[in-house]
Each structure stands twice: as C-alpha cells, then as structure tokens.
Amino acid sequence: MKRSSRLGNPAFVSARHQRKWYSQEAFAEAYERVAREEGVGISISPRQVRRWESARPPWPHPDARRVLTAMFGLPLETLGFRAPYDLDSVERAALAPSGARATTREEEDEWRNLLDDIPERLGQLIRLEMNAISLRSYETLMIPGLLQSPTYALSAIQMRNPTIQSSAAYERVRIRMQRSERLMRSGRPASFIVSEAAFYQPIGGLAVLADQMGHLLTLVSEHPQVSVQVLPLDAAYVVPSPCLLLEVSPGRTVAWLEQLTGSVLVESPDDVMSFRAVFERLSTTALPCVATLERIDERRRELCTAVEVAAHRVGVLPPTQTTTTASRSRPWAPPSE
Asked: 96: Cβ–Cβ under 8 A, 6 or more apart, which residues?
C-alpha cells in the first residue's frame, strides 16, 4: 500500500522500504540483529518504529543512533530526525516567556515520546514530577536542576560525566529545560531550599554562575508559586545530602534521593515523616524568601564584577554584553504590589 508523503516521516519510511524492510515488525527484527552485531544489547518494538516515523520523531539515544547508522549508512538528519539542540537554541527556548500557554496535543505526544526514550531512573523521576501536587527540594552544592539555566545545566552535566558526547549532553539539557518549563507553566507550588555553598561553587566558571543567579531571580519574579530560600553558610542546622519531597496525591508524599550511581524512592510513611520534619527545620533555619533574593542579587553583582576584573586583567572584553551591563544595574528589588 502506498503511503502518503505528506504525513509522518516519509524519509525514514522510504529508506526502510528501499532496504526491503516493508513492515515495522520486520524493521524491529532487523534492528535487533544489527544491535547484536554492534555489541549493543537493546531491542525495539514496532511502537518505537512508529514514533520514529511520526511527524516529529524523537532524537534517538546514543546506542540507538549507533545501530541506525549501521543499518542505513546515512546521517540521522537524512532520515528525518531533528539534529540535537545547540546551546543557543536551548537557551532561547528556556528564556522565552512561558505564561499560561496551554499544552498542545503535539507537545503532549512529544513529551510521551521523550519519556519512552530516556533511562528508566530519569523517567520515573519525571513521572513523579508530572503527577505531583507540590514539591519541595533541598540542594547542597548545586542549584536544583529545575531552577538551572541552560548554560549552568550543560556545565553541570559535563562536570558529572566528563566523557559524555556533546550531542547527548545537549539532549539532556533540553530534557531538563522542558521539565523546568512544564513545572513553571503548571502553577503548582514548588519550594526550594539551597545551601549558600552552591552560590560559590563556580560550575562552568564565574560568568556561567553569574548568569545562573540572574536566571534564579527571573524565575522567582515571574512565577509566584515558586519560592527559593538560601541556607546561609553559618546556619546552625545543616543536612549533608540533597533530597526531594513530592506530594503525589492528597495525604501521600514520597521522597526521592539522588545518589552517584543510582537513586532511591522512599515511600514508607514513617520515613517520609522524618524527611518532612527535616524540611520544616530547614525552612525555619533558612533566610526568608525576600532576604534570599537580596542575597542572590548581591552574589550576582559580585560575580559580574569579578568577571569584568578578570577580563580587564587579560586585556579582553567581558564575555557578554549582558554580564557587563548586569554589574552596573541597580540591585534587585521586590516587585511592587
């Protein structure tokens, strides 16, 4: 049966037919054979083939890209896939106003495809975030992922895995930015407590950290349901490891603990109650929200000045116009009511 070239991904379908894989089931079987030959222990279902043949096919993960390249001998862009986001496009998408725009059917389909193509651990966390009524996060040495700017997120991802390929790192940034945008659009209450140590850990460099401070101020100013508190360096009460509390249904909360080689989901009511008590004490120990924003802006201005001084010392212009302008701007002030 002749397929319409106006629908789906005709480039992929045509390439598959030219190699005599006339059905999606036949292609899935061929894929499994080639995967074994390539030393990749993965298989796919006809449903996955349908996703790749959809109008907006998700960018395959690294192992799948290797197998597809071996099968077709063609660049993935020739097969109708979109190239990974470069940093500029990720940044533009993240900084675009989100507002209260409704999610379209196409966006929902793309989000479901994304969930099917990421590691199970990350997929489980994203599903918890999607279904949560509210969330509370505590972070020790880094800015929480849902509050990260694109450049900071990229630097953090590459820091934790120095051998990661650029395309995979950009894809992870894209996923992180989508998670953040989805949370901001949802209007659900989200509380973040961040150790002040994260403001002094120059992940990606001083300019990246300065941009991250400005990103925090923008997020909180534009989304009143999001609160951020900083736990001062001289706080009398500290917790050594980060954690996340998600209220998944009325009266039911779970805790998510991220570790170096895995993660733990805590569902026992008694254990969760202990985490809730920890959060309550952290919240009362940390600076109030307005004082936190003043501290963030103070640190942003310090970083901008440090970037300018460093640039002048080596005889070059500051990295960006935004950075030099920020250091001369007036201090942050709460929006007038």
From this structure: none
Which of 27, 45, 79 is the C-terminal boundary of a domain? 79
| DSSP-assigned letters across all residues of 228-265 | EEEE-TT-S---SS-EEEEEEETTEEEEEEE-SS-EEE
Which residue reads 């998700």 in tokens?
Answer: 58
Instruction: Kindly state whether residues 137 and 37 are assigned to the same domain.
Output: no
Domain end call among 79, 98, 115: 79
Q: What whole-number distance in Å separates Cα of residue 86 and Cα of residue 173?
A: 10
Taking the CB of residue 333, how many other CB atoms lie within 10 A of it?
10
d(CA 184, CA 207): 25
Domain limits at 14? 10-79
Q: What does the pLDDT look like over 207-264, one tens digit per residue? A: 999 999 999 999 999 999 999 999 999 999 989 889 999 998 888 999 988 876 667 8
Q: How far apart are CA 95 and CA 150, in angstroms?
A: 9
**Closest-CA residue to 234 (of 278, 294, 295):** 295
> Is the same domain home to 66 and 175?
no
Continuous segment of H or E residues that includes residue 279: helix 269-285
In this structure, the answer to whether residues 319 and 185 fall within a common structural domain is yes
pTM over 0.70: no
